[in-house]
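Re: [ENG-882] Designed sequences occasionally contain unexpected residues at chain ends

Forwarding the minimal case from QA. Structure tokens:
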């Protein structure tokens, strides 16, 4: 990867990282408000409604979003023609998806109360999905700061609505209305920024063009569908087998894990346009960029997994309160899925950028089979613990297969021995935390983090070229064209 390209990836990742730290901090506060406002059962109902709606999300996009990012980055089509037709197609698909989600709730015989929950949170999910489709234009142009502005404004609006709602003691239905209102403003702001900075958005109803987009995007739709099933089916299965309260206990630590996914999302999203461009112009440089992304995310993911495991009881008691005590064992397991998911962001973005979407379908299909089979076997016996174990095994399978297919494409190893150094550094950190947490778990966590970084540096898991690249990037803050 060239110096300029590396700097662009790092710049975009840094912009996303800083902005998403702020966004996720606010979202995390919103999460704290929700758990205390709704309680374990109410939070379980909300989580079920969201997860149920998300299972239909693939129909609202059919993989179009990924095509937009890739083709704009590779300059394969006129951007206004591509975005205009894709936006119109996505609008029609979104309405169809909303109708299917609501209609299916009658078919499956859910109570009137849960049907209304599904209806409201289906609107939340579809509204968010359409806005994120439009935000992909910013990513395709590698101008992540505009996406950051939009998402930050949305989270601030939700925060304000939830604070008022907490004082008024609103219910699950009314929480959905807060999210819907903030989503409308997010859509409007996204369109205004797009019009002002990038291109004119005009819905175009060229059916022939739609067919050409769908022919290429359908494989991505399969990937999204299978990935979504693997990611959300456990919540729906838990609700069917164990009820909303258990869903709340499982969804709360799950949400904490999701909050941390902004880290790989920032790196993966910044990496994908660069890899897509290099795959066309300088394919031999792709491996070094992919390897760098895996090293970075493995370092962060392993550290968070070991630190989260050793401090799980203290963290969840502080964050969720004692009513969510059954969530602690689930969190101790799920946090290890996070380490695999971090690396999976790089493998998925690489496979997408290199036109290996059919391999991703195979990976996702295997993941769904593994996940659903394990959940059917483990949930009846072990409840949320079984669902957590199924998630870890599934993510490990997905990462292993992704790495294998990338190796077959590039014929060059993209794994690094540094990963083993991070594990050793993490064990050192974990032992230090265990020894210090009886004194103060907060101090133990902070000192443990320092020990992890220092140990990785001493083991040469953090290299001089990494530090040099960061220093060079900081020195050249201006936008890299």
């Amino acid at each position: 990867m060239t110096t300029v390209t590396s700097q662009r990836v790092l710049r975009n990742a840094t912009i996303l990282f800083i902005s998403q730290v702020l966004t996720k901090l606010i979202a995390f506060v919103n999460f704290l408000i929700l758990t205390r406002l709704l309680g374990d059962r109410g939070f379980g109902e909300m989580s079920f409604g969201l997860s149920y709606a998300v299972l239909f999300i693939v129909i609202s996009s059919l993989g179009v979003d990924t095509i937009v990012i890739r083709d704009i980055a590779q300059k394969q089509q006129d951007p206004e023609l591509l975005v205009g037709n894709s936006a119109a197609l996505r609008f029609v698909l979104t309405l169809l998806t909303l109708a299917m989600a609501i209609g299916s709730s009658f078919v499956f015989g859910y109570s009137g109360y849960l049907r209304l929950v599904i209806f409201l949170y289906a609107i939340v999910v579809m509204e968010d999905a359409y806005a994120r489709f439009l935000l992909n234009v910013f990513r395709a142009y590698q101008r992540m700061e505009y996406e950051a502005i939009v998402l930050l404004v949305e989270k601030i609006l939700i925060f304000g609505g939830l604070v008022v709602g907490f004082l008024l003691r609103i219910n699950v239905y009314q929480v959905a209305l807060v999210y819907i209102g903030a989503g409308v403003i997010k859509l409007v702001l996204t369109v205004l920024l797009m019009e002002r900075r990038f291109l004119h958005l005009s819905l175009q109803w060229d059916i022939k063009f739609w067919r050409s987009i769908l022919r290429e995007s359908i494989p991505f739709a399969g990937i999204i569908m299978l990935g979504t099933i693997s990611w959300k089916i456990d919540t729906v299965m838990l609700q069917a087998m164990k009820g909303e309260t258990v869903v709340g206990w499982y969804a709360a630590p799950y949400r904490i894990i999701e909050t941390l996914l902004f880290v790989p999302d920032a790196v993966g999203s910044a990496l994908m346009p660069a890899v897509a461009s290099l795959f066309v112009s300088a394919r031999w440089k792709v491996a070094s960029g992919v390897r760098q992304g895996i090293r970075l995310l493995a370092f962060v993911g392993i550290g968070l997994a070991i630190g989260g495991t050793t401090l799980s009881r203290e963290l969840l008691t502080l964050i969720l309160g004692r009513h969510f005590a059954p969530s602690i064992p689930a969190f101790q397991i799920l946090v290890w899925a996070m380490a695999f998911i971090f690396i999976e962001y790089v493998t998925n973005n690489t496979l997408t950028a290199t036109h290996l979407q059919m391999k991703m379908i195979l990976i996702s299909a295997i993941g769904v089979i593994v996940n659903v089979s394990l959940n059917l076997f483990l949930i009846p016996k072990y409840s949320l613990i079984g669902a957590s174990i199924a998630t870890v095994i599934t993510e490990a399978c997905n990462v292993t297969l992704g790495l294998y297919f990338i190796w077959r494409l590039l014929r060059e190893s993209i794994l690094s021995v540094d990963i083993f150094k991070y594990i050793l550094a993490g064990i050192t950190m974990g032992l230090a935390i265990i020894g210090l947490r009886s004194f103060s778990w907060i101090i133990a966590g902070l000192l443990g983090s320092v020990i992890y970084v220092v140990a990785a540096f001493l083991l040469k898991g953090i290299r001089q070229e990494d530090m040099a690249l960061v220093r060079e990037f900081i020195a050249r803050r201006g936008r890299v064209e």
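QA comment: On inspection the terminal residues look reasonable. The radius of gyration is 22 Å. Proposing we downgrade this to a documentation issue.
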